[in-house]
Amino acid sequence: MSTPRIIAYYLPQFHTIPENDEWWGKGFTEWRSVGNAKPLFHGHYQPRVPTDLGYYNLLDSTVREEQAALARKAGVEGFAYWHYWFGAGKQLLERPFNEVLNSGKPDFPFCLAWANESWMAKVWSDASGKQHKTLIEQKYLGDEDYKQHFLAFLDAFKDSRYIRYENKPVFVIYRPFDSEEIPKFITLWNQLVKEAGVADRFYFVANITSMDDKDRALSLGFDAVTINPTSRCAVTKNPILEKIRKKLLIYLRQKPVVIKYSEAIKKFWIPDFDMQNDVVPFLIPQWDHSPRSGLHSFVFHKATPELFEKHAMQVLEGVAKKKNNLVFLKSWNEWGEGNYMEPDLKYAHGYIEALRKALNTIKV
Question: What is the mean pLDDT of the segment spanning 161-174?
Answer without folding.
Answer: 98
